[in-house]
Every structure is written in C-alpha cells, then in structure tokens.
Specification:
This protein has helices at residues 25-36, 57-65, 103-116, 121-130, 132-138, 142-153, 168-174, 196-204, 216-219, and strands at residues 17-21, 40-42, 50-53, 69-72, 85-89, 92-96, 181-186, 207-210, 227-230, 241-246. The protein is α/β, with parallel strands linked by helices. It has a four-stranded parallel beta sheet, sandwiched between helices. Helix 9 links the parallel strand 8 and strand 9. The chain is globular and about 65 Å long.
C-alpha cells in the first residue's frame, strides 16, 4: 500500500484557541480563515494545540518544543500540518492540498472544482442530514445503507449531486434491494489509466478480488474499508458490490 504524506482531517475549531504569529497580508489572510472557522486567535504564550506562524522560524521551534502542531507559512519543511485550498457549498467542503509544495496548483484545482459543483449542493447535504433517521429505518444494516446511498448518489442516480437531484422522499419510497454486482476488468499498471467507470466501481466496491500482479496503487483506489482478496471471486457472491481486477 502506498503511503500518504499527510492525513486529511476536518477540525472543529469553534471556541478553541489557535496561536497566530506574524504580520502583513499573509497573517491577515490566516486570521480571517481562523475567524471564519470560529477559532479564538491567540498569542504565542497562550495554551493551544495548533499554531500558524508567518516568517518566524524561532517561534516555530519554540512552539514545537511545547508540543504544539505548527503551520509555518511558505515553509513546508517546518510544517506539522498544511492548510488546503477550499471549496464550499453549504456544509460540503472540498479541500485540495499539495503538502505545501505548490499553493498555486492547489488554487488552480480549486477553481476547476468550483465550476463543477452546483451552487445548490448544500441543499442536498442538508436534506440528507434531515433524513438520517428515515434512511437508517429504511436500511438498518450499515452495509445495505452504504450501498443504497452510494447507488443513489452515483452518476445518473436519483440523488446525483452534480445534477442537483434532491427528491429524497421519493428515493426512500421507491428504492428496491439491489442484487450483488460484479465488475470485472484488466487492471492497468498506472491509476491514471483507470477509466471513470472503473474508478467509480472501485470507489463503491465492498470486496476487491485481484491477481498477484495488480499494482498496489490500483488497489489503493478502492475504499479503505473494502476487503482486498487475492484470487478470483466465489461463484456465489455475497451481498454488495464486487470488483475483480485481473492482472495484465
């Protein structure tokens, strides 16, 4: 399995202290971002778990010695965490990071994503939040629930987010159980050579069967909790979505 240079997380900072050190436009931009997230902007000597530092390597080292996680602006070699470019649609937040290598690239990708995501996407997530109890009642089993939601949100599905389909009540009333599905294809050596349909099948798979020569980078495109099984799938498939990756 290939490694991640960073683990993406979403931090709830409302009412929590974050140290900010520095002056100028860069520091003010970080201040605005922290305030939008509801954080309390603090000074170097205040107790806090996170800090953002602009142009002060000595302060970075002092904070790290205290166990504070630090973002050193424009100094990725000193960073414990980086701040991504952000796209917002209501409670939908898409974050694009490059590990501090290129803020320009992250911003360019953010601009592309801005054009893809409908303005009303926040309405869909609000509707799904309000329907959580009804969805759980409709599909008590977590695996069935995940597959039903995945199918509904897939391209062309009744809740396709890029088509702004959000009639959740009709979806809950009309959905029928789906039989086990098997997608079979020859695995490329490079993940960039996966077709959109193949990448989507991996993202939705509960079980991934594969030959011994399938590249780990391809297996990494499946969900983290999907089982990876060396060998061919059984004749009688269990419930769920299955992918069979054949080596080349």
């Amino acid at each position: 399995m290939t490694s991640l240079h960073s683990l993406p997380v979403f931090l709830r900072l409302r009412g929590r202290a974050v140290i900010l050190i520095g002056e100028g436009d860069a520091a003010e931009a970080k201040r605005r971002l922290l305030e939008r997230a509801g954080a309390v902007v603090a000074g170097e000597n205040d107790p806090a778990a996170l800090a953002i530092v602009v142009d002060d390597e000595a302060a970075v080292l002092r904070l790290k010695a205290r166990g504070v996680l630090v973002n050193a602006v424009d100094r990725p070699d000193l960073c414990d965490f980086t701040l991504p470019a952000i796209v917002e649609r209501g409670d939908v937040i898409v974050a694009v990071g490059t590990g501090g290598a290129s803020a320009g690239l992250a911003a360019a990708l953010r601009q592309r994503i801005e054009g893809w995501l409908p303005a009303r996407l926040g309405d869909l997530v609000a509707g799904l939040r309000n329907a959580r109890a009804a969805i759980r009642a409709r599909w008590p089993d977590s695996g069935d629930r995940r597959r039903a939601i995945g199918a509904a949100l897939a391209e062309g599905g009744p809740l396709d987010p890029l088509e702004q389909r959000s009639d959740i009540d009709s979806w809950l009333a009309s959905d029928a159980p789906s039989p086990p599905a098997l997608t079979r294809f020859a695995a490329p050596s490079d993940p960039d050579d996966l077709t959109l349909a193949q990448a989507r099948a991996l993202a939705l798979a509960d079980h991934v069967y594969h030959g011994g020569d399938v590249a780990p980078a391809i297996l990494d495109r499946a969900r983290a909790d999907a089982s990876r099984i060396a060998g061919a799938p059984p004749a009688a498939l269990p419930a769920g979505n299955h992918v069979w990756l054949e080596g080349r």
